[in-house]
């Protein structure tokens, strides 16, 4: 796919991701009136898994389109075809623009939608929380990449459940966002996107955790890969 096409896909998916999460909350909590009820939370989780499958399918048909800067950074640091500079100065800005447009539009149409994720703890614990959650999901994603690439359903299922679990764990602390573009969209709408706590918690910490996660995964898996290659070479001789 041409680079312009990838940028358009990223912006569109980021826009749609913001809408998907918001519409699920509107449907379950406001339309159906199931706020603070067990069946409401169960329905919200089920719908969240459903739209995660939908976005995984969009990523598949777009050949790499993504709504999360951490995903494309992970590809870039893992030696992906697009390269770091195109990712940093092309794809990530497109995702941020898509998220901002999505948040502004949905707040215009549904004024009672809320204010998005907020930091409810101090900046240091918030950074550790978002960093740890991101590190864990990066490790899961890297592990799934090593598995059979044809098992779309199983990989998407494991990834979705992992993301939802981590989101729930961090929801009362930082929102459990693990998506700088989405967090920026809501922060921009509130006018606090340039505050230090936003930059540290929702950008710096997750990006550092992504790099550390990829480095850790390589450290744990490359020795085994090299050993296996040497064993295969000996057998062939």
TrEMBL record:
UniProt-recorded Gene Ontology molecular function terms: channel activity
Pfam families associated with the record: MIP (PF00230)
Transmembrane segment boundaries: 6-33, 45-63, 83-106, 127-144, 200-220
The keyword 4Fe-4S is annotated on this UniProt entry: no
Entry superkingdom: Eukaryota
InterPro entries with a match to the protein in the record: Aquaporin-like, MIP, SIP2-1-like
Subcellular localization: Membrane
Cellular-component GO terms for this entry: membrane
Principal cellular location given in the protein's record: membrane
UniProt entry keywords in alphabetical sequence: Membrane, Transmembrane, Transmembrane helix, Transport
Entry membrane topology: Multi-pass membrane protein
PANTHER family: AQUAPORIN SIP2-1-RELATED
Family membership noted in the UniProt record: Belongs to the MIP/aquaporin (TC 1.A.8) family.
Designated name of the protein: Aquaporin SIP2-1
Organism: Canna indica (Indian-shot)
Phylogenetic lineage: Eukaryota, Viridiplantae, Streptophyta, Embryophyta, Tracheophyta
